[in-house]
Amino acid sequence: MKTGLVLEGGAMRGLFTAGITDVMMEHSLFPDGIIGVSAGAAFGCNLKSGQIGRSIRYNLRFARDPRYCSILSLLLTGNLYGAEFCYHRLPEKLDVFDTDAFMKSPIEFYVTCTDVLSGKPVYHRIERADYDDLEWMRASASMPLVSRIVKTGGYQMLDGGISDSIPLRYFQSIGFDRNIVILTQPRGYTKSKNGLLSVMRAVYRKYPNLLDAIEHRHEHYNETLEYLAGEEQRGNILLLCPDEKLPIDRVDHNPDNLRAVYDIGRACGEKHIEKIRNFLHP
Q1: pLDDT tens-digit readout, 32-85
Q2: Which of 10, 90, 147, 179 could bond 4 through an S-S bridge, CB–CB 3.0 to 4.6 Å?
Q3: How far is CA 233 from CA 65, 110, 158, 272, in A?
Q4: Which tens digits make up the pLDDT trace of 252-272?
Q5: Rounded to two decimals, what is the model's pTM?
Q6: Which of 152, 158, 145 is nearest to 38 (CA)?
Q7: Cα–Cα–Cα angle for 271, 38, 33, nearest 5°?
Q8: Which helix (DSSP H) or strand (DSSP E) does residue 181 occupy?
Q9: Are 115 and 140 in contact (CB under 8 A)?
């Protein structure tokens, strides 16, 4: 029986997840596999490479750097989060991602993206964390309207959250029977219909299947929450989420807010560390 870790996205809300996974690493608690969506993929990869504190460290360091995330970057490059800076210069030069440790780790690591032509999720296993793999991570976290479509692996892709925000069922389908699911919204949250749908229709008029996925995303998300509730009741998953709405925006340049959300995640991890241990090692 394989254990998995399913990581929802949510842009800067993902630092809540990073707080939990750092606590897990400090206690030497690792799953057999990880699947991340958007920020869940971008931050969750540090669990496989064993780099405690890396996610919060570089976010604090570059929170106000226009190369990292800014309207200027969006205007100049078409990406709110600078593609070359965030996914290549930063992990290769400025806060080095340990690719050797990543490759040597036995943990299987997957990302979820959305194919803009079909509107369907694409699940990809990342094994080397080389340039192409980092492009898959970038695709997973490329939010619509503020990101260019990423072309890699024969696909054209955007944010995985569009088509499968919480890919538990996929992970179960490939053999991960017991899963810890980390959400970045509190219990009781339900997603509403996208308020920018009319803008999306204008921008992505050439991609009708993508538009269909965006239009019905809230329905799929809320149905997935119902599925999670049933799986939790049956004991198949351990569900971790914040107690209340996190005090941060999806895009936030305030280091104090970033640290606060990370600390909330750490507190959650420490509070539930024995549950995590017993779930991974029953």
Answers
A1: 999 999 999 999 999 999 999 999 999 999 999 999 999 999 999 999 999 999
A2: 179
A3: 44, 26, 33, 17
A4: 999 999 999 999 999 999 999
A5: 0.97
A6: 158
A7: 60
A8: strand 176-182
A9: no
